[in-house]
Amino acid sequence: MEEEETERVDLILTGAVVATANDDFDLYENGAVAVRGDEIVAVGPAAEIAERYEAAETVACGGRLVMPGIINTHTHVPMTLLRGLANDRRLDVWLMGYMMPVEREFVNPEFCVLGTQLACAEMIRSGVTCFVDMYYYEKDIARATAEAGMRALCGQTILKFPSPDAASYEDALGYTREFIKEWQGHPLIAPAIAPHAPYTSTPEMLRACIDLATEFGVPIHTHFAETKLEVEESLQNYGMRVVPWVEQHGLFEAKVLAAHCVHIDEDEMRTMQRYGAGVLHCPSSNLKLGSGIAPVAAMLAHDLNVGIGTDGPASNNNLNMMEETHLAAMLAKGATNDPTVLPARQVFAMMTRKGAQAIHMDHLTGALEPGKRADLIVVDLSALHNWPPFTAEPDAVYAQLIYSAQAGDVTDVMCNGRWLMRDRALLTLDEEAVRAAALALAAKIDAFVIAREEDLFSKLVAIGGLEREESYEIQVKGRLPRPDVIADLLRHEDINIVHRSHYRQYDTYFLFDDPDMGRIRLREDAFINEDFQVTRVRARLTFTEPGERQALPDTVMLSRARFMAPADRSRRFYREYFRPNREYEIHKERRRWHVDYKGERIYVNLDTVTKPAIAGTFLEIKSRTWSRHDAERKVKLISEMLDILGVSRDQLFLEEYIDFIPDHPEE
Ligand SMILES: [Zn+2]
Q1: Residue 403 in 3-state DSSP?
Q2: Any domain includes 482
Q3: 241 lies in which domain range?
Q4: Does 11 or 652 have the greater pLDDT score?
Q5: How many whole angstroms separate alpha carbon 503 and alpha carbon 589?
Q6: Does 53 share its domain with 151?
Q7: What CATH number is attached to the domain comprising 524?
Q8: Bridging pattern class, strands 220-224 and 256-260
Q9: Residue 383 CA, ligand 1 centroid: distance in Å
Q10: Claim to verify: residue 472 and residue 597 sit in the same structural domain
């Protein structure tokens, strides 16, 4: 009998339970995998592989599970360095109020390299061989990832506003083009374009991203419909939900992978399925940020490619894909009241082959089959929490893996034919050096955040748009005997009315126990026309530091630092962001005249306070200036105006409304 010639390979893993995640989900009880170079050559029963192949090295797996490397389909790896920094906050406050300001201060190429190393070490330990990233300085992330030996789809972030690595989205696009050219074709790294989300994009910016993606054939990695608020704003601003809006702007001309999709409806699922867009399901992040539960069972029923991701470690707070997968299974059952949805094998597919399909990398990874890259892991299912094993059900090993296994059960990890971990020892990263460097950086970030929390000014600066206002304010208030005396003043020959307005003013004061912190006022002005209709609303924040009050004849002069910023977020955002000890509201109806009196600009206000309701009409005369000398001069003019009005001096008071209203809180 002619002896069949054996083929040489580099490595055979044998004596394992091999879960292939191939088209038929072939499972070998006593199986083997043959690897040559970076490629899987054969998978099958151990005896058959031993007959056909001769290996330079044979690893006896002792009944452990060999499966495809796990795919973390959505994360922001350098954010390991921000892990645990701000917790229990809503997405907008967490992102705009904490993450982005800290990132503006600290994120640079070194930060990204260190954060990537920490993330890679953590992910390798839990059996991840491939991840999808979205962050800044993606070139540096790609380099650190390749050095760690992991596979990644690296998405360079593009935002409509300035980011740590780009002053504008045009700059970000330029950087992304360079990045793609540098990394396209690399054996481990695939570049991607990452417009952060529809709500942080403009249509022009999205168009440019799509053009760049189609020019180079690279995918677009983004976030969709993460919160209800995002969908509501999309409906309000564009009259349509998120997916139709991006479809209208041509996003699906590119290969798309979209994180979250928590709030998409069935039509949106159909749209995404039609274009082959991948969904990156991030259950921990969606739960921790209170964003909701993605309708994963429905997505799978619509034949969408759904992978599982940890999201960034700042909103999870780890990169443990074993935990994430377990949660994905549990959550889908709980949310639908149906334990039959997302059975273990299907979840296993989501962490492997379906994840690879969702990120458009299934030609390379996600299954153990000839021709795919050798991305595989060995899992020891003999620990107490996995014990004992059963075989009565054919999918028992998947149930063990999804419902009882832990990240620490992963013993060996190979990516692209290279061992990254053997017997739980990392081979490509210096774990202790990474830990020490991260600790040193954390101390700096900690100090920055602590200082900022005590300083309202810095918190205001962090959210942008702040401008300094005049430092001196001279003002007086009085009860008017009859409101129409104001007409006498306005008719006076020395008075020239420059501008008049009428509005309802809704003030919310954020007050702090420590008086040195100053106070923040959110003022919403609803302008009213002659027909008493509201024509527009303007919202502004004013931050006032404690300053000096100097009583002058008839008036008070305040000298203090005052800053103003447009308020484009909700009162709820500011409340959660500034975290005042107390709040106080004052509503009033105000008629205001900007007048020139003897050549000086002075403001005359006629106020009715409606909350808390106070009887009567109040006059307020005030002026602002940068100069103390000028302020003193204006005091005289205000006294003269009071004479013209015939206001008796015992009707005057010098406090602000918040200071004299009877039930105002102690300051
Ligand atoms: Zn994300």
Answers
A1: helix
A2: yes
A3: 70-375+425-449
A4: 11
A5: 6
A6: no
A7: 2.40.320.10
A8: parallel
A9: 33
A10: yes
CATH of the domain at 56: 2.30.40.10
Dump pLDDT digits (tens) for 581-632.
999 999 999 999 999 998 889 999 999 999 888 888 889 999 998 888 888 8
Which residues neighbour 187 within 8 Å (Cβ) at sequence distance 6 or greater? 38, 416
Q: Same structural domain for residues 187 and 315?
A: yes
Q: What is the CA radius of gyration of the chain?
A: 32
Q: How many CB atoms are closer than 10 A to CB 47?
A: 12
Say how far apart CA 603 and CA 195 lie, in whole Å. Answer: 46
In tens, the pLDDT along 473-487 reads 899 888 877 777 888
Same domain for 564 and 582, yes or no, is: yes
Q: How far apart are CA 211 and CA 201, in angstroms?
A: 15
**Phi and psi based region of residue 89 (left: phi greater than 0; alpha: psi -120 to 50; beta: remaining):** beta
CA-nearest of 96, 111, 169, 171 to 144 is 111
Do 83 and 314 meet the contact criterion of CB atoms below 8 Å apart? yes
In a domain, 665, yes or no: no
Say if 106 falls within a structural domain: yes
Residues 465 and 507 both lie in one domain: yes
Query: How far is Cα 309 from Cα 154, in angstroms, rounded to an integer?
Result: 14
Q: Tell which residue, 355, 349, 345, has the closest CA to residue 308.
A: 355
Do residues 431 and 527 share a domain? no
Query: DSSP for 52-101?
Result: HEEEEEEEE-TT-EEEEPEEEEEE-GGGGGGTTSS-S--HHIIIIIIIHH
Residues 20 and 165 both lie in one domain: no
Distance from residue 258's CA to the centre of ligand 1 (Å): 9
Contact (Cβ atoms closer than 8 angstroms) between residue 111 and residue 79: no
CA of residue 7 to ligand 1 center, whole Å: 45
Cα 603 to ligand 1 centroid, rounded to whole Å: 49
The full length of the chain comes to 667
d(CA 258, CA 197): 9
Cα-to-centroid distance, 76 and ligand 1 (Å):
6
Q: Structurally, how many domains does the chain consist of?
A: 3
* Residue 222 alpha carbon to ligand 1 centre in Å: 8
Give per-residue pLDDT as tens, 117-145: 999 999 999 999 999 999 999 999 999 99
Count CB-CB contacts under 10 A for residue 392.
5
Query: How remote is the CA of residue 260 from the centroid of ligand 1, in Å?
Result: 8
Cis peptide before 416 (omega within 30 of 0): no
Cβ neighbours of residue 548 closer than 8 Å, sequence gap 6 or more: 558, 559, 560
Ligand 1 center from residue 654 Cα (angstroms): 52
Do 445 and 460 lie in a common domain? no
Contact between 462 and 563 (Cβ < 8 Å)? no
Task: Output the six-digit token pair for 615.
Answer: 């009887």
**Count of CA atoms in the C-beta half-sphere (13 A) of 321:** 32
CA angle 466, 469, 475 (to 5 degrees): 140
CATH number of the CATH domain containing 141: 3.20.20.140
Stretch 224-246: mean pLDDT, rounded? Answer: 95
Which of 19, 44, 63 represents a domain boundary (last residue)? 63
341-359 as b/e, with b when 16 or more CB fall inside 10 Å? bbbbbbbbbbbbbbbbbbb
DSSP code of residue 402: I
Domain presence at residue 131: yes
